[in-house]
C-alpha cells in the first residue's frame, strides 16, 4: 500500500522509518512538511516524492492512505480532506484542537458512511495494556470499581506549555480507560495539588485528575511531565474480587551496590516503540482493505472532549458534554 | 515492668501473648474485661490477677503501666484515668470516639506535664514504612508532592458498619502520612465512587478519599474493606526527583500453573505482626522510664479529627479544625 | 524480497505468517513440504507457488532467499544447496544433526567467501537478552565469572525423546551464553539428577548441565521440559561487581485470592514471538543485501558441537573439540 | 531465665543486646571473654558478672543456660561442658571445627539422654525460609527435584581465609537445604570456577558447589563472599509441578534516575536480624523448660561433615561419611 505522510518532524520520521523497515505491506511514496528542506531529505531517504502542499499528498493519485503527523491544530482539516478523498488516514493524536472540530470529523465520516479514520492512541497495541484488557474481559477481577493511573515523563520541551499535560498527556489515560472499561467518561475534575519547582510554573505540574465514567467508575490519574527519574506509565483496575495492573516491560535486572535495579525507559519511544509498530501494522492491514480499525474518530472526539472538561474544571467537577454516538462507532467496543 | 491490660478480646489477648512471650522487660500482672469468664481464662494463662473493674487495674499499686484494648468508646475515659494515676498507657486506636474527647486527653496530658500516652498506630514500627521514612528523610526523592495510598482488607465482620472504614481504617493512612510527611492534614474530601455489591450497602465500600496537608501535599487514599483477594496496604510518595513506595514483606514466590505468585497476607496480623511486637517493645522501653514514645495523644487526636472531617465531607472539601498543638508534642516530628 | 520456504509445519507456517504480515520487504513466493496437501493450503494462503521438491524452491529463479523449516536432519543438505545457489538462507536450529555435518556447511560457506547463512537462534533478538548484552558490554557488572540458566517448558510432545533436551533445548542456552560472553564453550558435563516421574523416563528430565568457556567461566543450566507450570527462561550473569538477570516480559499483574500473580507464558511463541519477528526482519534486511547477519553457520556448528559433548559426557567433564574458526566468522563477536 | 554468655565479640554482644532488649524471659547474668576489658564493659552494660574463665560461666550456679559465641575452635569443648553441667546451650555455628569433634558432642548429648544443644542456624527462623518450608510441606510444588542456592556477601575481613567460604558460609545452605528437604546430604563436589580478582586469591572466591541428598536431589550453591554489590541470599526449590523461591524482605522501592531500585541489605544483620531475635526467643522458651529446640547437635554435626567433604572434594564427587543418626534426633524432622 502506498502511504503519503504529512509532517516529517520527529514523530513523522519515526513513523516513516517504521512503515519502511518494520511493517509489512506498506511503502511511503509521498511526503510533505512546511520545512521543505527537511521534507526533501526524508523523501530521499524513503524513496518518496516531496510535495509542495499537504493537500497534494492527499490528492496524489498514487497515494492510497495518509498518515497525519503535522502539528495538532492542522489535524482536523487534513483528516476532513482525507475523508473527502475517500482515503484511509492515521491521524496522530489529538484528532483536533477542540471537541467541536473533532465532532465535525466524526460527522463527515458518518456522512461518508464507512470508517476511514484511525487515531494514534498507540497504547491499545501495547502488550501490557492488552494483558489488562484480556484480564478484564475474562472477568478475572469481577466488576471494575476504580482505576488508578500514573503517567510520568522525565521532562518536556519548552514548547510544552499551558494545559498540554491535560490535552496531550492525560488524553492517553482517557483513551486507555474508555477502551479498557468499555464506557464513556462523563465528568472530570482537576484537583489542586502542589507543583514541582523543577517544572515551569505555568504547567502546574504534576496534575491530579479525577475522571468519572457513565457507570460511575472513578479514575484517579496523576500526570507528571517533569518527574525526572524516568518514563513511568501505570494503571491498576480495582474490581470487586481482585485487581489487575499494567506490568512494564523491562530489559534486565541489574544488582549493583545499593540494590536490585529494574531499568525504566526514559521516554515513550523506549516504552511504547513496539506498540507504535503494531499500531502501524494494524492500520496498514485495515487501510489496505479501504477501512480503519482501532481507535476511531469518535474515540478521538471523546478524548478531546474529556480533556476540555478537565481544562475547564479548575477544581470543580465538570460534566463532559458528549454528542450522541453515531451507529457507525457502535461496533467492537462501547455499547 | 508490670502491665495491666484492660480488654481481653482478640486484640487484647494478642497483645498479652506478645508482652508475655515476645517482648523483653514486661509481665502482665492484672487484667479486666466485661466478659469476666474470658478475663479469668486469660488471666490464668498469663499468671495475672483478674480485676472487677477497669479502674481497679489502673489503681492496682503493682501495675506500673496500662494497655487499653477495650471497645473504642471506653478509651478516652480510661486513658484519662491513667494520666490521673500518673501511669504510662498504650491505647489502641482510636484514642477517642470524637475529636473533642481526644482533645480532653491531650489537655489532661499537657496539664500532667509529661508524655504518658502512646496510641497504637503500629505502622510506624513496620520495616517497610520505616524504609519509606528513611528514604524521605535522606532526601532521596526531593520534595514530596503527592501520596498514593491503598488500604484493602479481605472482608470485615458485620459489626464493622457505617463510617468505620473512615474512622477505623483510614486513620492508619492519616497517621502514617502525617508521620511520613511531618505535617498536619488540614482538609479531607470523600469522593463518590461505585460501591461493591459484595459489601454491605451502608459501608459504601470502597471509599476514595483526598487528604490535603498544611503545605498542600495531596494524598489520595483508597480504603476497600471487602477487597476479597487479600490484605494489601500500599503507599507511594511522589517527590520532585523520584518516588518511594512501601514494599510488602513476603514469604516466598511460588511458580505454579498460570504464573509466578507472590503470596499476600490475608489479614493485618500476618502483615503487621512484627510491627505490633516492635510497637510493644518500644512502649515497654519508654514506659519503664515513666514516659511514652511513638504516636502521641496529639497524633491520636489529629487522626480522629481528620476522620471526622472525612465523615462530614460527603463529597465536598472539608477543613479539619485542629486545635493549636501544645509544646509538649513539638518534639521529634511535626514543627 | 521473494522468499522460498521449505517446510510448512507449525514453525514454517508461523514464519510465513510473520514474513507476510509482520515484516517489511518480504514476500513468500514459493513453498515446499513433504505433506503436499499442507503445502498447497499454505501456498494458497500466502499467494505462493507450491513446488514438488525442496530443491525446486532453491532453484526457483524468482526466489531470492530461502527459509529452511523442515525437519532437522534435512537442514545441512538444504543449506549446502542454498550456498551452492548463492542464495541467503535462514535455517531453523539445528544447523545440522551432527557437528561434522555442520562443519561441512561452515566450510562450504567459507569457500563461497561471504556469509549467506543465518541460524534461527531467536533469543539474540529478544529485548530481555539484548538488555543483558547491553549491561555486560557497558561493564556494569565488572568481569563475568558465572552464569545461572534455567530453561523450562510446560511439556513436550511424544516425538521429543532421547537427548533432545540437550540437542534441541540446551542449544539455546549454549548460543545465548556464547553470544553474551563473546567466547566459546570448551567443555560440558551433564550432572546426574533425579528425574520427574511426570516425564517420560527416557528423557531423564530435568537435566542439569555445567558448561565451561574458553576463559573458564562456568555456566550451570537447568533444562526441564516437563516443568508443567509455565514456559520459564532465566539467565543471570554474575560478575565481579554485580549481576545482571534477564527480566521476563509480562502482560499484567493480577491480584487475586492467595496473592499477586505475574502471568507466565505457556510456550515459546508467547515468550519469544516478538523476537521471531525481529529475527526475520533482520534476516530480510541482510538477505536483501545478498548476505546474512546474526547467528552464523559457525554459531550453529559450535552449538551442535557443545550439545554433542553434553550428550557424550554422562556425568564426566567432556571437552568440546572445536575446529579452528575461519576468519569469515571473526567479525562482530568472539575474538 | 538467667543466661551466661561466653564470647563478647561482635556476635556475642549482638546476642546480649537482643536477649536483654528484644526477647521475653531472659536476663544475662554472667559473661566471659578472653579480652577481659571488653568483657567487663559488656558485663556492666548488661548488669552481669564478668567471670575469669569460660568454665566459671558454665559452673555459675545462678546461670541456667549458656550461649556460646566464642571462636569456633572452642565451641565443642564448651558445649561438652554445658552438657556435663546439664545446662541448655545455644552454640553459634559451627558446632565444632571437625566432624569428629562434633560427633563427640552428639554422643555426649545422647548419653545425657535429652536435648540440651541448639546450634545457631538462624535461617530456620527467617520468615522467607519459613514460607518456603510451608509451601513444600503443603505439597504446592509436587516432589522436589533440584535446588538452586546463592549466598553472596559484600566482602569479608582478612581473617576470613582458606576454605571458610565452605566451612562458615556454605554451612548455612547445607543446614537450610537439609531442613527444607527433610533429608541428609550425602555427597559434595566443589566445581572449579574462575575466581574474582577482587578477592584474596587463597579464598578462590566465588565457589560453586554441588550437593546431593540421600534421595538424589541435587543442590547447586554459589557462595561468593566478595560479591561487592550487597548481601544476597536466594534459594529456589524446583519440584515436579512448580517451584518455590525465597523472597527477600525489603524496606522500600525507590524510583530514581535509571530505574526502580529495590534496596538490598549490605550484611546479615540487616537481612537476618529478626531471625536472630526469633532464634533466641525459641531458644529461651525451650531452655527455660530445660531442653532445646530448633537445629540440633546432629544438625551441627551433619553440616560440618558436609563442609568437610566439600573441602576434600577438589573437583571430584566426595561422599559424606555420616555416622548413624541416634534416635534422640529422629523427632520433628528427617526420618
Ligand atoms: Mg500516540
Ligand atoms: Mg493499631
Ligand atoms: Mg529458534
Ligand atoms: Mg548463625
Automatic annotation (TrEMBL), chains A, B, C, D:
Keywords: NAD, Oxidoreductase. It is an enzyme of class 1 (oxidoreductase). Residues 1-121 form the Gfo/Idh/MocA-like oxidoreductase N-terminal domain. Its EC number is 1.1.1.18. It comes from the Bacteria. Residues 133-322 form the Gfo/Idh/MocA-like oxidoreductase C-terminal domain. It catalyses: myo-inositol + NAD(+) = scyllo-inosose + NADH + H(+). One of its GO terms (biological process) is inositol catabolic process. GO terms for molecular function: inositol 2-dehydrogenase (NAD+) activity; nucleotide binding. SUPFAM superfamilies: Glyceraldehyde-3-phosphate dehydrogenase-like, C-terminal domain, NAD(P)-binding Rossmann-fold domains. Pfam families: GFO_IDH_MocA, GFO_IDH_MocA_C. Homotetramer. Involved in the oxidation of myo-inositol (MI) to 2-keto-myo-inositol (2KMI or 2-inosose). Belongs to the Gfo/Idh/MocA family. HAMAP family: IolG (MF_01671). This is Inositol 2-dehydrogenase. It comes from Phytohabitans flavus.
Amino acid at each position: 500500500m502506498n502511504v503519503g505522510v504529512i509532517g516529517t518532524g520527529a514523530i513523522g520520521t519515526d513513523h516513516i522509518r517504521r512503515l519502511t523497515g518494520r511493517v509489512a505491506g506498506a511503502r511511503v511514496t509521498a511526503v510533505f512538511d512546511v520545512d521543505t528542506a527537511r521534507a526533501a531529505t526524508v523523501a530521499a531517504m524513503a524513496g518518496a516524492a516531496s510535495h509542495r502542499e499537504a493537500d497534494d499528498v492527499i490528492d496524489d493519485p498514487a497515494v492510497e492512505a495518509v498518515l497525519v503527523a503535522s502539528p495538532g491544530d492542522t489535524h482536523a482539516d487534513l483528516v476532513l480532506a482525507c475523508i473527502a478523498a475517500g482515503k484511509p488516514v492515521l491521524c496522530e493524536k489529538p484528532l483536533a484542537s477542540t471537541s467541536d472540530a473533532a465532532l465535525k470529523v466524526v460527522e463527515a465520516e458518518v456522512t461518508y458512511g464507512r470508517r476511514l479514520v484511525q487515531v494514534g492512541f498507540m497504547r491499545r497495541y501495547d502488550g501490557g495494556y492488552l494483558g489488562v484488557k484480556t484480564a478484564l474481559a475474562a472477568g478475572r477481577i469481577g466488576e471494575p470499581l476504580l482505576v488508578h493511573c500514573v503517567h510520568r515523563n522525565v521532562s518536556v520541551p519548552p514548547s510544552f506549555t499551558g494545559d498540554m499535560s491535560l490535552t496531550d498527556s492525560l488524553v492517553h489515560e482517557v483513551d486507555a480507560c474508555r477502551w479498557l472499561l468499555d464506557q464513556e467518561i462523563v465528568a472530570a475534575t482537576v484537583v489542586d495539588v502542589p507543583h514541582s519547582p523543577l517544572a515551569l510554573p505555568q504547567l502546574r505540574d504534576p496534575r491530579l485528575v479525577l475522571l468519572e465514567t457513565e457507570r460511575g467508575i472513578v479514575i484517579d490519574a496523576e500526570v507528571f511531565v517533569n518527574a525526572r527519574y524516568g518514563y513511568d506509565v501505570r494503571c491498576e483496575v480495582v474490581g470487586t474480587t481482585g485487581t489487575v495492573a499494567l506490568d512494564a516491560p523491562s530489559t534486565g535486572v541489574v544488582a549493583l551496590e545499593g540494590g536490585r535495579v529494574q531499568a525504566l525507559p526514559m521516554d515513550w519511544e523506549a516504552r511504547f516503540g513496539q506498540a507504535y509498530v503494531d499500531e502501524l501494522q494494524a492500520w496498514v492491514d485495515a487501510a489496505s482493505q479501504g477501512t480503519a480499525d482501532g481507535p476511531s474518530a469518535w474515540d478521538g472526539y471523546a478524548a478531546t472532549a474529556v480533556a476540555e472538561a478537565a481544562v475547564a474544571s479548575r477544581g470543580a467537577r465538570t460534566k463532559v458534554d458528549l454528542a450522541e454516538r453515531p451507529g457507525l462507532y457502535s461496533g467492537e467496543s462501547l455499547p
